[in-house]
């Protein structure tokens, strides 16, 4: 029974020394003196703000993409004990002693270092030689731009890592498909493909391009499987479901989980709250939640409310009125009703309060029990301080002459009767009997007499830099808009602050309106509701894109006609630039051109039944190019369609795929076009000479890659190989 003890337990481990060596070199190149410079470098000033907000659990919205990348940077800060106390206001600002610089930069550096062995593994899985794979890894290792981007608190190296991991995982899964379907390793690599894809998308939406490429590749491979008569229908269905689970369902679930963690961590109110709905703001600790704590949920006749416009951009604003009237005549000579002004005011104010009145009764207090207002009910809105009724009529609005003026009615005893009845329409209702609810209900007010809808039209004018003139205190215009002109979010309002009115007398009611609310809504938004709103804000929120000194066009990237100065030492002249290895970039372009021309030549010849290379070599050529050229195309071409400020670092994911193509083309040329021994020897010698030049250029530009040693003005001028490069030379 104990016979197994007679023999020793032996564990055999295979170690690929190429992988070990490449990993070590990658770590050295990215981690060496990582804390230098101990100052804010370029976009660290941007990402650092979010890291601080994570440390303080304060909610924010970043329109650049999903939260995973920010959370990974924050993880570095958390592991280093960062308390979030640093003012990220200037590039070059010296970090305080409380900022763990090495820890904050660690994860991007590790991701950049691991891209080196990943490149090696990808070419091996594509069935190219270990020599070609080693060449690909060394090119990634010696690419100055990738080194620079991975040594700071930036996201591109993390994005590229997950992209390469997704490609490698899919290739390993595909190669296992032939002989060990549904094995443990087969499932591992398939699931890892989905996980890596979701992480790539979770870091930046640019990762979506590679995800789509891999989905298309998987779809093409499955299409070929359908034609395999050796596979039964049940087996095909199992393959289809496995791919659907791993490549669609799991990535979607993980993507949701990133937002779940993000929203769980950021539970405190912050400076970005104002662009979110009142319901979202009320779900955060502090801020609006403190104001609305304990409010009644259902709006009733006699309720005192503030109405916030749902659009909330370019700024939040509330329906507002004050005792001042519209001028009798505007600057352009048009006349007005001279009624009391109604505006949308971007600050909390006592004049934002309105009372919901039943048109059939005179009382302005809530009855006992309260009578809730439902979808379709007719109401009057009485301004709390001036007690005048919200009104609109066939008079042109001050800034929007094609829309109706909205006012609070003053009886001048002339032939202009009050038109102050409004129908409440709950836009997000579940049924036609829904009750109007505080914060949760999004409502539209339709004027009974004219069918005009209450709209904050001032948003349009604010975007153009205009608002009401001095007589309107530069507040935003409110108009009555015909529904025939289409639906817009600026027509939708929600109750933000709410109390049940108790005072019938005006003086007592004014005191009541000035006092804070005492009650609260206990109902919180669900995660999916918060996710949907936050996701929509990320996709639609647009910061004003301004021309940046180092912005560039996508056409500038291919030939590297641009650079970015990341950091400059204030005294020594030491500096860091995002500059690529010129030889590598040029070689990548040449490789892409050769691949395209050769592929077209082969296709034409094969159409004529002329086969220049063996079938296995052709399949190798197509599969390798499909991944590398496809990866370059999907990560580069979309930028021509984007209306945003672009920088050189946006090209790095595409460049990585293009670099992987270089050894593929070199191996093909050496194996199939250099057919004599002399040509092969000459080609090998040229390859060695070319690779030596790659290393020499890497060494030449390493002072501006690592920021040390500092160079003299003459040495810096010598590095300006292109007139379009902006190398900073300080005056002596």
UniProtKB/TrEMBL annotation:
Reactions this protein catalyses: a di-trans,poly-cis-dolichyl beta-D-mannosyl phosphate + L-threonyl-[protein] = 3-O-(alpha-D-mannosyl)-L-threonyl-[protein] + a di-trans,poly-cis-dolichyl phosphate + H(+); a di-trans,poly-cis-dolichyl beta-D-mannosyl phosphate + L-seryl-[protein] = 3-O-(alpha-D-mannosyl)-L-seryl-[protein] + a di-trans,poly-cis-dolichyl phosphate + H(+)
Biological or metabolic pathway of the protein: Protein modification; protein glycosylation
UniProt keyword annotations, A-Z: Endoplasmic reticulum, Glycosyltransferase, Membrane, Repeat, Transferase, Transmembrane, Transmembrane helix
Gene3D superfamilies xrefs: 2.80.10.50
Keyword Isomerase: no
Domain spans labelled MIR: 296-359, 370-427
Membrane topology: Multi-pass membrane protein
GO molecular function ontology, one term from the record: dolichyl-phosphate-mannose-protein mannosyltransferase activity
PROSITE patterns: MIR
Subcellular location: Endoplasmic reticulum membrane
Glycosyltransferase keyword on record: yes
Broad class of the protein's primary localization: endoplasmic reticulum
Transmembrane parts of this sequence: 9-32, 68-88, 100-120, 154-174, 186-203, 208-226, 246-267, 582-604, 620-641, 648-666, 678-698
Enzyme Commission code: 2.4.1.109
Pfam families: MIR, PMT, PMT_4TMC
GO cellular component: endoplasmic reticulum membrane
Coiled-coil ranges per UniProt: none
InterPro entries xrefs: ArnT-like_N, MIR_dom_sf, MIR_motif, PMT-like, PMT_4TMC
Annotated family: Belongs to the glycosyltransferase 39 family.
Protein name (database record): Protein O-mannosyl-transferase 1
Species name: Columbina picui
Lineage: Eukaryota, Metazoa, Chordata, Craniata, Vertebrata
């Amino acid at each position: 029974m104990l016979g197994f003890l007679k023999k020793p337990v032996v564990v055999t481990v295979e170690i690929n020394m190429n992988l070990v060596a490449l990993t070590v070199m990658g770590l050295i190149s990215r981690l060496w003196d990582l804390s230098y410079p101990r100052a804010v470098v370029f976009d660290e000033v941007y990402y650092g703000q979010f890291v601080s907000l994570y440390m303080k659990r304060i909610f924010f919205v970043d329109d650049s993409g999903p939260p995973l990348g920010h959370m990974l940077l924050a993880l570095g800060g958390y592991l280093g004990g960062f308390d979030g106390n640093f003012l990220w206001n200037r590039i070059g600002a010296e970090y305080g002693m409380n900022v763990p610089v090495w820890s904050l930069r660690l994860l991007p550096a590790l991701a950049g270092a691991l891209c080196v062995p990943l490149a090696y593994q990808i070419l091996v899985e594509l069935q190219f030689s270990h020599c070609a794979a080693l060449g690909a890894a060394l090119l990634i290792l010696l690419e100055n731009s990738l080194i620079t981007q991975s040594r700071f608190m930036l996201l591109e190296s993390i994005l590229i890592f997950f992209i390469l991991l997704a490609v490698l995982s899919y290739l390993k899964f595909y190669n296992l498909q032939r002989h060990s379907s549904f094995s443990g390793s087969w499932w591992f690599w398939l699931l890892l493909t989905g996980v890596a894809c979701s992480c790539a998308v979770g870091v930046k939406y640019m990762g979506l391009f590679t995800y789509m490429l891999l989905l298309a590749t998987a779809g093409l491979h499955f299409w070929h499987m359908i034609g395999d008569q050796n596979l039964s229908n049940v087996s095909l269905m199992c393959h289809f479901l496995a791919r659907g689970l791993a490549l669609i369902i799991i990535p979607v679930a993980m993507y949701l989980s990133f937002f779940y963690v993000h929203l769980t961590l950021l539970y405190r109110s912050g400076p970005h709250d104002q662009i979110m709905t009142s319901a979202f703001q009320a779900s955060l600790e502090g801020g609006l939640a403190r104001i609305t704590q304990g409010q009644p949920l259902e709006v009733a006749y006699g309720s005192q409310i503030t109405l916030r416009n749902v659009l909330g951009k370019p700024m939040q604003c509330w329906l507002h009125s004050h005792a001042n009237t519209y001028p009798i005549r505007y600057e352009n000579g048009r006349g007005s009703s001279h009624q009391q002004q109604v505006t949308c005011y971007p600050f909390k104010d006592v004049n934002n309060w309105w009372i919901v009145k039943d048109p059939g009764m005179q009382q302005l207090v809530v009855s006992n029990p309260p009578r809730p207002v439902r979808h379709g009910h007719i109401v009057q809105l009485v301004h709390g301080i001036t007690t005048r009724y919200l009104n609109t009529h066939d008079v042109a609005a001050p800034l929007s002459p094609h829309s109706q003026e909205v006012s609070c009615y003053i009886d001048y005893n002339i032939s202009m009767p009050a038109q102050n009845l409004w129908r409440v329409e709950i836009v997000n209702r579940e049924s036609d009997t829904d009750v109007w609810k505080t914060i949760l209900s999004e409502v539209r007010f339709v004027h009974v007499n004219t069918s005009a809808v209450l709209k904050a039209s001032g948003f349009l004018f604010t975007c153009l830099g205009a608002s009401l003139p001095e007589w309107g205190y530069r507040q935003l215009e409110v108009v009555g808009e015909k529904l025939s002109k289409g639906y817009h979010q600026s027509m939708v309002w929600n109750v933000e602050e709410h109390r049940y009115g108790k005072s019938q007398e005006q003086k007592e009611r004014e005191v009541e309106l000035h006092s804070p609310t005492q009650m609260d809504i206990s109902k919180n938004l669900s995660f999916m509701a918060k996710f949907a709103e936050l996701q929509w804000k990320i996709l639609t929120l647009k910061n004003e894109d301004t021309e940046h000194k180092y912005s560039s066009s996508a056409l500038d990237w291919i030939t590297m006609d641009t650079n970015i100065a990341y950091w400059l030492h204030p005294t020594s002249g030491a500096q860091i630039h995002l500059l690529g290895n010129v030889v590598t970039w040029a070689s990548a372009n040449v490789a892409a051109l050769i691949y395209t021309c050769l592929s077209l030549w082969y296709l034409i010849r094969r159409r004529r039944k002329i086969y220049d290379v063996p079938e296995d070599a052709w399949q190798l050529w197509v599969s390798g190019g499909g991944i590398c050229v496809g990866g370059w195309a999907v990560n580069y071409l979309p930028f021509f369609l984007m209306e945003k400020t672009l920088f050189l670092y946006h090209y790095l994911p595409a460049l990585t795929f293009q670099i992987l193509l270089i050894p593929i083309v070199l191996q093909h040329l050496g194996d199939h076009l250099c057919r004599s021994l002399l040509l092969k020897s000459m080609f090998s010698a040229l390859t060695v000479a070319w690779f030596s030049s790659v290393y020499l250029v890497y060494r030449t530009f390493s002072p501006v890659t690592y920021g040390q040693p500092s160079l003299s003005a003459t040495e810096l001028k010598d590095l300006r190989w292109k007139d379009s490069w902006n190398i900073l030379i300080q005056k002596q």
